[in-house]
Structure formats: structure tokens, C-alpha cells
Amino acid sequence: MTTTKTVHVALYDTLSDWEFGFATARLNLPHFQKRPGVFQVRTVAATLDPITTMGGLRILPDTTLDRITPDDSALLLLSGSDTWTTGANREFSAAARRWLDAGVPVAAICGATIGLADEGLLDDRPHTGNAVEELSSVPNYRGQAHFRQERAVRHDKLITAGGASALEFAREILAELDVYEPAVLEAWYGLFSTGNPEWFGKLVAAAS
């Protein structure tokens, strides 16, 4: 019997709605997956009130953060938003600590890395973000020596990326959750990063 695992996508106003789509689409679509139907995506917010994304979309959360624990989750996904720079969303950066302490992956992109920096979660872990200068503006950040100039970094259950690297962010999430065989993941990334249709043939062949 297949056990369904839930990936929780955090919601808050001004959410950067382009940053998680590559990942959530691949988690929901069974095509090419090693174990189709294993993952489901659910949204989680501080309240059940609708949020408005940066693109102007209104989204109703599936649940609230106080109703879930790391045991309920396969991964907590934190996207950017303007609110991270104002010190908001602290409940989600605190949740990220609980998830990591429990050995459950956390994926943070763009402004969400500011929240992790403020929580002290980047002080001793390899990571990336929009820029080390941005993270260094966070008073509690002590992780400059661990910042990597890479599109996305995955280390010990933590995935980080800059806002211009949504595709690489998704690749690392799919790798962490073991959604695809390595050759399938390579071909999928090759197709979407280059647009070369030859990669689609390689994708189909790898999944056969």
C-alpha cells in the first residue's frame, strides 16, 4: 500500500508565486515519477484567511501552521515575499527550525532565506540566497563563511536558492524527495533549462 506524503507550501501575503511552481507541478504530476501518487501538495498559512500573492492571485490555505507538525510533513517549502524583509513570517522561520531538528527537509528561496538567517539556521550550514550582502543585512546572521555562489544549495535536509533560480530550486527538492531516477531528473532539468527538444527524447528514454 502506498503511503501518501505531504509537501507543505507556506502562504503569506505578497508570496512570490513564480518561485514554487516548477516544484509543485512535478510533485503533483505522476509522469516519470518513480512512485506515482506518493506526494501531495497542501498549502499552510498562519490563519485560514485568503492571502494575495505578488502576482495578485488570491489563495485559500488548506490548513494552518498550528495544526501540523514535522511528523505530518515530507517537506516545508518557503517562498519569498516582501514581508520577509519586514521581519514578518517568524512563525514559519521558527517552524523551519522544528522541521530541521526533526530531520524533515526545508526548502527556502529568495526572501525566505532572510527568515532562516534571522532564525540562526544559516550560521553553520552551506547555503545560498539572493546575495550574501542581503543576508548580511540581517543582524542575527553569522553565516557569511558558509554562503555559496550557486543557483541552489542542498545540504543536510536544507535547500536554499536565490529568487532567479526557481528551476534549480525545484531540481534540488525533487532530488531530496527522490521523486525521479537521477537520469530522469537530469533530462527534465536539461529540457527546462535549455528548451532543447532533444532533452525530451532523453527524458522519455530515461523513464522507460
Characterize the structure shown.
This protein has 7 helices and 9 strands; from the N terminus they run E-H-E-E-E-E-E-H-E-H-H-E-E-H-H-H. Strand 1 (5-10), helix 1 (21-28) and strand 2 form a beta-alpha-beta unit. It is of the alpha/beta class. It starts with a strand and ends with a helix. Helices cover 32% and strands 17% of the residues. The chain has a 7-stranded mixed beta sheet, with helices on both faces. It has a two-stranded antiparallel sheet with strand order 3-4. The chain folds into 2 domains: 5-177, Rossmann fold (3-Layer(aba) Sandwich), CATH 3.40.50; 181-208, no CATH class. One of its GO terms (molecular function) is peptidase activity.
Topology:
Blueprint (H helix, E strand, L loop, with lengths): L4 E6 L10 H8 L10 E7 L5 E2 L5 E2 L3 E2 L10 E4 L11 H12 L4 E4 L2 H7 L13 H5 L15 E4 L2 E4 L4 H11 L5 H13 L3 H10 L1
Parallel strand pairs: 1-2, 1-6, 2-5, 6-7, 7-9
Antiparallel strand pairs: 3-4, 8-9
Overview in brief:
With 208 residues, the protein is of the alpha/beta class.
CA-based shape:
globular
What is the domain tally?
A: 2
> Which CATH architecture of the largest domain is right?
3-Layer(aba) Sandwich
Give the uncertain stretches in residue-range form: none
- The neighbouring-strand order within the major sheet is 5-2-1-6-7-9-8
Gap between N and C termini, in Å? 23 Å
**Main CATH class of the largest domain:** Alpha Beta
Q: Calculate Rg over CA atoms.
A: 17 Å
Q: How helical, in percent, are the residues?
A: 25-40%
Strand content: 15-25%
CATH 4th-level superfamily of the largest domain: Class I glutamine amidotransferase (GATase) domain
DSSP helical segment count: 7
